[in-house]
Design a protein that fits this description.
213 residues, alpha+beta, Gamma-B Crystallin, domain 1, 4-stranded antiparallel β-sheet, 29% strand, binds calcium ion
Amino acid sequence: MRTTTIRRTIGASTAALAVTLGMLTTPAMAAPSVASSDTRPAIVALTKAQKAELQRAVDAQIKRAAKKGTQTAANEVTYYSADGKVEAVAVLPLPGETIAPSYTQTANGITSDWHGCPTFAYCFYENSNWEGARWQFWAAYEGPPGYASNYGFQDRTSSWVVNTSALYIVADDAAPGGTGQWLWLWTTNPQSSASYVGNTNNDRMDRWWAWVA
Ligand SMILES: [Ca+2]
């Protein structure tokens, strides 16, 4: 019976400790999650399992990106520049959907978009035909390029949209083998799009420049 006594003693101590810790660490009221505050009908209509699936996709996007992302909607992760401006937004498709919804935030009152890519933005898409996750950018990268790994989409781009008349984009791939060499993939005109980057270029883009036309 000695063993039982010890177990009982340990059990009692653990329970007491848990209560103490609970009193110390449990906040009076938990803040609602970003996802549960997203009241768009398409989000509210998701099943519990679909909501969990979507949150896993958001968490994976945040984990993949080298830069710190902030979940700003049930299916969006925003990346802010040092001065607090929106630098990029990853918009994920909802479970059961192939195309990611429109961006929740509209800039300057403009609501129109092109394949979900907001006016004045340019976008890279996970899949061909502008399907799958969409990574939205607004800024020029004329000196240092943008790196897809910072935003969690290295070697994923399959289609794109440049929904601005102001920017040209050049896409590059890091040569395999860590040689430090870069391979040109494609150059886009302003206000243009591609439903597929082609078999040779698919899932290869690592960095890009965007310069003012
Ligand atoms: Ca892809």
